[in-house]
Design a protein that fits this description.
The complex is a heterodimer of chains A (1008) and B (282). Chain A has 1008 residues and is mainly beta. Helices cover 8% and strands 38% of the residues of chain A. Classes of the chains: A mainly beta (1008), B mainly beta (282).
Chain lengths: 1008, 282
């Protein structure tokens, strides 16, 4: 039972645990509103900052202000600003008193050193913090040889609240010190007091580690007292049992004071002067008991004070800012020089860094020499503090550009950073003097003017060597010449003239010349100065001028063609920028089809160089030029004074043309069907032999048709005369012959010849020939595929009457290979005589002939014969013309029936009749062949004006048709008959024996 | 700060589970009802009775609900927990009666919790630190208390009794040690800090006091605790035999262990404890 109970309880415990975990509410809204980091983006940070790392600033939690220190001649603008702010918080920029949400990357206007306000509001909305951010110009460089730090009367109590009495804060007011030992906007001497308040907030201001002593200095004015104090219970709890008094320039990060105290003291500020010595008035009373960081007393050790001046490089090899802190203030490898109170060290050799590193030694016999009586000390800056065997050099240009930080620091317990020291050790400090190297050695001061110098921030902008900026005079010399760079801007440079002892310098006008006054030495101007001794008796005139270096040969750095769509000209965008070759040639590789007849050519040339084009005119970079010829175009560069010149040549190099073709030829007219059978025939491509053939209608007018040749762009076309042919130009193709066109690619590199002709169609026609006649039936018969019916001749009838007749006796037969011979045959048979058919004409026509027997013929007579013939067969074209080549020889004896008629001459007949066949039901017969009302048109030799001669005669008949219904025609509703006979009235059995009609062929033309 | 509720919930739930189990066993004993009540009933004919009790007490002091500033309770471990008491009762009728008790109990536990923007004030030797703390907060508590409940008691069945009523609790000894420290993880070395409240209304915008992994601040709050708290007790009694019993109870405090205007711990901390144990019934 109990076990069951236990199991049950455990299950319940488990489920309630799950319940508990889900009980934790959502995270509270964030309550902080700090800017942690700020970054100003500049494409070229060095335009305004001394180093790139100056663009980034990390704020301390207590900060509400930051001033970016910019070069003294920087021109300020608006820059994108990026913040890292507390999680959940929102940034606003204050503009005209209104808070406007600020997005990272937004431009912030820093011109005129204006102060921009930002408000950060925390996520919960409960708290906010206002920051003031600005940029301030560094003061212009001036020579500084020493500064004196007095700590006189410049202290106030801050941090006072209801719970805390507050602590002393020193604000430096001497501008020489603030400009050189403090960051812009932060002229506060730093010490551990703001950290001490966090552990002993109840302390009175005088109980802090760093306090002033009113009138307590060696000279009777104020000094400072650095006093090693206990940090109380809180300090002990966090294992920071003591706080040494301190004073230094730099930053104090109080947020780390109780956590990582050495990191809280961040020392040094950029200073453009090189320290050589530090002096101070000091007094020291060590505390009684030296204790370690766990507050254990260490016997036999006496506490020691410290005072130092350190110069170090403030940017590392990676461009990151370097700032020394309590951990490495005396060991960091960026340290260049150290002046420090003497202490006992072991110098430990570091093989890797090739230097000694000092390791402090705690003793009971300090060597610093400071006692409870005021003492003035003077300590030189040791530029080989790490005992490497050689002095560290200070780069003068870097120095001037604030590339080195200087620390002036002091403390009451030299090991205080490690929480070692004696409580109540007290160091009194007054009148710290820092002596800097004088960059100007004044030379021989016995001369009226010993030296002349031009001191600027960046001497290398004017001089080849920095040393040229100062000129020492020798005795007897009165000409002062500054050798300057050819491009030095000498219009307004500060000139310093060091007068010798007892001399005063006046300008040409007799006014006192103040060293540092800006003078104009441009264009070789010579300035005169007078050095006068105090009596005014001796006056020596000096001249000052700048000697400009020879101007260098102007050079072209690059040439570019900048257009909106570079790929219309270049295959690669990068091709648009070219640098000159060794032979000063610039070649732009362009596309084969590039149009470069007017392109903007930008020539980037060396400083102050001017450009002239080939005609000697000034060329403005970026002007349009015509480079289309692919030839070199010359540009001449002249130095500023015109003494030097250099010639460059620019051209384009067209890429090889890869595509070259004529895609099609076309004849484009309004009504293509006037010319072509189908519209698509108007466009043709060349065949393998480069021939282009337009099939045109037989009756098309192609004497002047517009011919379009679709060739790859920029091609040129020439006609057969060698003239340039413009596409669309009219050509005469009526001869049906080939016409040659020559197509040349851009710049004529490729050629293709095409031949164009019109294939003029034939007029539609049927040619009926007779060469293929058959004799299978005992007489000639012909058939023709173009006829709907076969040829019918009088042969069959003749054979009925004269059964024994041979093939060559029949009236229709071949003469030779192909000629049709129709002969009116003599019919001497009994039957013929009975039928009064003395002659049988040679006849041929297309149509049908009913079959018959001799008996039927005998009983039916002539009219029966006539009724057997059916003329014509369906024909679906409208005949237009008939051509016949024939000759005729009439017979001698003319018969009508059986009766010989004297004097009558026989004549032939050839005809074509076109008629409606009434749906195929109707054919013409002998009696109505030329008279029936269905006839829609006919021609006939007989009765016409045309004659067939005895020699070959060409006959042409025009067939006039009327009322032709084209629909009926298409349906086969019309028939056509062509026929010929050797005796025109043969069907009535008239004709002359032996009349011969020869026909070579019959051609029937028709409408298509 | 606490995972106390978990344990309390266990106690309450396991107690309420007991009657269910008890009913089951009754089915096995088909004794007439009247006899049962007699057999398990009060030992005295007059309706008076006493019970000596000894038990194990578990629970803690917790704000309710748990404030958002407490991000994660990393540890809760009970300590001590001895509970000795005597209860007297008078049954007015077969079902209803009154119960009064006196219990001496040891309330102990320790917790570790991650907090964020947790407002606190630490006073040490006259020095004061206050502000918004983000980091780890540990507490260790061990107090002796006297609890006097006055309850109505109700006999649910022959063997089951439930009692409910208010109680007064007095602290005989007060030990409340608190410690704040940084995150032990190196990557969060600078994430633990006190945002100092300068008391000038500027809020968490000024000094920051980073607590690295090895930095800690301790304070004893025992002396600041109130002397008396009040609450409600819920008690279940079950008879194993006529003289031996088992019990489970929940003491739920309705007043905070710190004064109302206390700055160090700004939210109310209610004592909530469950106890199980054995009883001897006279």
């Amino acid at each position: 039972m109990r076990i069951k109970l236990l199991v049950l309880s455990m299950l319940l415990a488990l489920s309630s645990t799950i319940l508990m975990v889900s009980c934790i509410s959502e995270a509270p809204l964030e309550i902080e509103c700090d800017i942690n980091e700020m970054y100003v983006h500049l494409d070229n940070p060095l335009d305004i900052f001394n180093s790139e790392s100056d663009t980034l600033h990390q704020f301390l939690p207590i900060d509400t202000k930051y001033v970016f220190s910019v070069k003294h001649n920087a021109s300020l603008g608006s820059y994108p600003v990026y913040f890292k702010i507390s999680r959940g918080s929102t940034a606003y920029i204050v503009i005209d008193g209104k808070e406007i949400p600020f997005e990272n990357g937004q431009l912030v206007n820093f011109t005129n050193e204006r102060v921009q306000k930002f408000v950060i509001r925390c996520e919960s909305g409960e708290w906010s913090k206002t920051y003031e951010i600005s940029m301030e110009h560094q003061p212009a460089y001036t020579v500084l040889t020493e500064m004196l730090i007095t700590f006189n009367g410049n202290y106030t109590i801050q941090g006072r609240t209801s719970a805390n009495p507050g602590y002393y804060v020193w604000t430096e007011t001497d501008p020489i010190i603030t400009k050189n030992l403090f960051r812009a906007g932060d002229p506060i001497w730093k010490n551990g007091n703001p950290g001490y308040i966090l552990s002993r907030g109840s302390a009175q201001p005088d109980e802090y580690p760093t306090i002033p002593v009113f009138n307590g200095g060696m000279d009777g004015t104020d000094c400072i007292e650095l006093h090693t104090r206990s940090t109380g219970s809180f300090g002990q709890m966090v294992h920071i049992p003591l706080a040494a008094g301190s004073m230094f320039n730099g930053l104090f990060d109080s947020s780390k004071a109780l956590n990582d105290a050495r990191k809280a003291t961040r020392m040094g500020v950029p200073c453009p002067h090189k320290p050589v010595r530090i002096e101070a008035d000091l007094k020291y009373i060590p505390g009684d008991k030296f204790q370690d960081s766990d507050e254990n007393e260490i016997t036999g050790v006496v506490d020691e004070p410290d005072l130092y001046c350190i110069i170090y490089r403030n940017v590392d090899e990676n461009g990151d800012a370097v700032m020394l802190d309590g951990d490495d203030v005396l060991t960091n490898r960026h340290i260049k020089g150290v002046a420090r109170l003497s202490h006992n060290y072991n110098m430990i050799w570091n093989e890797e860094e090739q230097r000694h590193i000092p390791e402090p030694v705690l003793t009971n016999s300090p060597i610093h020499g400071i006692t409870s009586e005021w003492k003035h000390v003077s300590i030189p800056v040791n530029y080989d503090f790490f005992q490497t065997g050689h002095e560290n050099t200070i780069d003068p240009v870097l120095l001037r550009n604030r590339g080195y930080n200087i620390i002036i620091g002091s403390t009451s317990s030299w090991r205080g950073g490690y929480f070692e020291g004696a409580l109540d050790s007290r160091l009194y400090v007054d009148n710290i003097k820092v002596v800097f190297e004088d960059p100007e050695d004044e030379g021989d001061t016995t001369l009226p003017i010993s030296s002349a110098s031009i001191i600027v921030d960046d001497p290398l902008a004017l001089f080849t060597e920095e040393g040229d900026s100062i000129q020492y005079l020798e005795e007897g010399t009165t000409e002062i010449v500054f050798p300057v760079k050819w491009d030095a801007d000498m219009k307004s440079v500060p000139l310093t003239l060091h007068a010798g002892q007892g001399y005063t310098v006046f300008d040409e006008g007799g006014k006192l010349f103040v060293s540092g006054t800006k003078v104009d030495l441009s264009n070789g101007k010579v300035l005169k100065f007078k050095a006068r001794d105090t009596d005014g008796k001796l006056e020596i005139i000096y001249t000052v001028r700048a000697q400009f270096q020879d101007q260098p040969v102007p050079t072209m750095l690059s040439a570019s063609i900048r257009i909106a769509s570079p790929l219309t000209i270049f295959n690669n965008v990068g091709d648009s920028v070219q640098t000159p070759s060794a032979s000063n040639e610039i070649v732009f590789p362009v596309r084969w089809d590039a149009v470069v007849s007017s392109v903007p050519l930008t020539l980037s040339v060396s400083k102050w160089a001017t450009i002239r084009d080939a005609s000697g005119n000034d060329f403005v970079s970026g002007s349009n030029v015509d480079l289309s010829d692919g030839q070199f175009h010359q540009f001449m560069l002249f130095s500023q004074d015109g003494s030097q010149s250099n010639t460059y040549k620019v051209r384009v190099q067209y890429a090889e043309q890869t595509e070259f073709a004529v895609s099609s030829f076309s004849i484009i007219v309004n009504n293509p069907l006037d010319i072509f059978k189908q519209a698509s025939d108007s466009v043709q491509t060349a065949n393998e032999a480069n021939e282009v053939i337009f099939p045109v209608r037989w009756n098309a007018d192609v004497t002047a048709v517009p011919l379009t040749i679709h060739a790859t762009k920029f091609s040129t076309i020439y006609d057969e005369n060698g003239d340039v042919f413009t596409s669309g130009q009219k050509v005469n193709l009526s001869d049906g012959e080939f016409h040659t066109f020559t197509v040349k690619s851009r710049f004529g590199k490729k050629t293709q010849i095409y031949k164009v002709k019109a294939n003029i169609g034939q007029e539609p026609r049927y040619v009926f020939g007779f060469e293929n006649g058959s004799t299978a039936s005992g007489y000639y018969t012909w058939t023709d595929a173009n006829l709907a019916s076969s040829w019918v001749t009088s042969n069959a009838m003749f054979k009925v009457l004269r059964t024994g007749a041979t093939v060559s006796e029949c009236p229709a037969r071949k003469d030779g290979a192909s000629v049709l011979l129709l002969e009116t045959a003599a019919n001497n048979s009994t039957y013929a005589s009975m039928l009064k058919m003395r002659t049988v004409p040679g006849m041929i026509f297309n149509g049908t002939m009913d079959s018959y027997t001799l008996q039927q013929a005998m009983s039916g007579g002539l009219s029966y014969f006539q009724s057997l013939a059916h003329y014509g067969a369906p024909f679906t074209h409208k005949p237009t013309k008939m051509k016949v080549r024939a000759k005729y020889i009439p017979g001698e004896k003319y018969y009508k029936g059986n009766t010989y008629v004297v004097g009558e001459t026989d004549s032939p007949d050839i005809y074509c009749v076109f008629y409606r066949n009434m749906g195929g039901q109707f054919t013409l017969s002998t009696s109505n062949m030329f008279t029936h009302s269905n006839i829609a048109g006919y021609v006939r030799l007989h009765g016409s004006s045309k004659q067939v001669g005895t020699s070959w005669t060409d006959l042409e008949f025009k067939i006039v048709t009327y009322n032709v219904d084209t629909n009926v025609l298409a349906d086969g509703g019309y028939s056509m008959v062509i026929g010929a006979t050797s005796s025109w009235n043969g069907q009535n059995m008239e004709g002359a024996e032996g009349s011969k009609l020869y026909i070579e062929s019959i051609t029937l033309y028709y409408e298509d | 700060m606490n995972r106390i509720i978990k344990y309390i919930a266990v106690a309450v739930l396991s107690l309420t589970a007991m009657p269910l189990y008890a009913q089951e066993t009754e089915i096995d004993a088909p004794i007439p009802v009247a006899d049962k009540w007699e057999r398990w009933g009060p030992t005295s004919r007059t309706g008076f009775g006493f019970q000596l009790k000894m038990g194990y007490s578990i629970g803690g002091y917790s704000p309710l609900p748990i404030p958002r500033e407490i991000r994660q309770i990393q540890k809760f471990s009970p300590q001590g927990g001895i509970s000795v008491g005597i209860e007297g009762y008078k049954m007015f009728n077969r079902r209803w009666g009154l119960k009064i008790g006196v219990t001496l109990a040891n309330q102990g536990f320790s917790t570790r919790a991650e907090v964020k923007n947790y407002y606190t004030k630490i006073v040490l030797d006259g020095e004061e630190q206050k502000g918004w703390f983000t980091g780890i907060n540990e507490t260790s508590i061990n107090n002796w208390t006297i609890t006097i409940p006055v309850m109505a008691t109700f006999r649910m069945s022959s063997r089951w009794n439930v009692s409910l009523g208010p109680y007064m609790q007095m602290f005989l000894s007060k030990n409340f040690d608190a410690k704040v420290h940084g995150f032990p993880e190196a990557e969060r070395a600078e994430d633990a800090y006190l945002r100092v409240d300068h008391g000038d209304g500027s809020g968490p915008t000024q000094d920051k006091n980073i607590f690295g992994p090895e930095k800690e601040a301790t304070t004893s709050l025992g002396k600041d605790m109130v002397t008396c708290t009040a609450g409600v007790e819920l008690l279940f009694d079950w008879k194993v035999t006529k003289h031996i019993g088992a019990f489970g109870k929940l003491d739920w405090g309705f007043t905070s262990i710190f004064p109302g205007d206390y700055d160090t711990v700004r939210f109310k901390m209610f004592p909530i404890f469950g106890t199980i144990g054995a009883a001897y019934c006279f």
